[in-house]
């Protein structure tokens, strides 16, 4: 138990350092270069962002082996949404990487994750600050839907490029008469994305009630 708790603390610390670096980098670049910094956000922080998102796949494993008590499906949906949008949509289309929506999306992701991993690290040590607890379980309610809208917008912006370049579209040779037109796949995924958003928001409300109920607040104050 102590070993697993220490492992989770180190994991949260790594994620906190990565997302804090990205978040600080974005703010400093914007304060220094203004709007000019938005277009090359992906080029300046994309590598670290990809590393952090790949590392987050471990959270699914943590739930499966029982060292994390979070619900599997909501966390799985949140992680796969980011992986698909970051690696399949943004990373594969250089023309999309310079769009302002990428900067907005990265800002929302990192703002949420800096708060979440800070809360997780302190909770591993049995430390609970009510303002941080409130922020962790309240900030996601407005920001997660905004991030989903940004993901949907990023997908819509990428569609003309997938259509022009034929990226990921597959046409099987004879005797098969089957082909996969990837823009159609992305359009269908938009439906999945917004349907999953409703489920995840419901789960976020449930988590907020579970952690910020009157009884829990009194216990953490004491």
Automatic annotation (TrEMBL):
Keywords: Endoplasmic reticulum, Fatty acid biosynthesis, Fatty acid metabolism, Lipid biosynthesis, Lipid metabolism, Lyase, Membrane, Transmembrane, Transmembrane helix. It is a multi-pass membrane protein. The chain crosses the membrane at residues 7-30, 42-65, 127-144, 181-201. It is found in: Endoplasmic reticulum membrane; Membrane. Pathway: Lipid metabolism; fatty acid biosynthesis. GO terms for molecular function: very-long-chain (3R)-3-hydroxyacyl-CoA dehydratase activity. It catalyses: a very-long-chain (3R)-3-hydroxyacyl-CoA = a very-long-chain (2E)-enoyl-CoA + H2O; (3R)-hydroxyhexadecanoyl-CoA = (2E)-hexadecenoyl-CoA + H2O. Its EC number is 4.2.1.134. GO terms for cellular component: endoplasmic reticulum membrane. Catalyzes the third of the four reactions of the long-chain fatty acids elongation cycle. This endoplasmic reticulum-bound enzymatic process, allows the addition of two carbons to the chain of long- and very long-chain fatty acids/VLCFAs per cycle. This enzyme catalyzes the dehydration of the 3-hydroxyacyl-CoA intermediate into trans-2,3-enoyl-CoA, within each cycle of fatty acid elongation. Thereby, it participates to the production of VLCFAs of different chain lengths that are involved in multiple biological processes as precursors of membrane lipids and lipid mediators. Belongs to the very long-chain fatty acids dehydratase HACD family. This is Very-long-chain (3R)-3-hydroxyacyl-CoA dehydratase. It comes from Mystacornis crossleyi. The gene is Hacd4.
């Amino acid at each position: 138990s102590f070993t697993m708790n220490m492992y989770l603390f180190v994991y949260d610390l790594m994620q906190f350092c990565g997302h804090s670096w990205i978040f600080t980098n974005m703010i400093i670049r914007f304060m220094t270069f203004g709007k000019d910094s938005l277009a090359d956000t992906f080029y300046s922080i994309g590598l670290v962002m990809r590393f952090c998102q790949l590392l987050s796949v471990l959270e699914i494993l943590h739930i499966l082996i029982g060292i994390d008590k979070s619900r599997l499906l909501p966390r799985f949906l949140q992680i796969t949404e980011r992986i698909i949008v970051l690696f399949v949509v943004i990373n594969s289309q250089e023309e999309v990487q310079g769009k302002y929506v990428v900067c907005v999306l990265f800002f929302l992701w990192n703002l949420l994750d800096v708060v979440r991993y800070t809360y997780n690290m302190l909770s591993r040590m049995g430390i609970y600050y009510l303002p941080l607890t409130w922020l962790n379980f309240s900030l996601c309610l407005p920001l997660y839907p905004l991030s989903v809208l940004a993901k949907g917008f990023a997908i819509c912006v990428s569609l003309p490029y997938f259509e022009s370049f034929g990226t990921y579209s597959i046409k099987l040779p004879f005797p098969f008469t089957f082909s996969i037109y990837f823009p159609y796949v992305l359009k269908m995924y938009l439906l999945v994305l917004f349907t999953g958003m409703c489920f995840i928001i419901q789960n976020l409300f449930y988590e907020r009630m579970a952690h910020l109920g009157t009884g829990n607040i009194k216990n953490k104050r004491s």
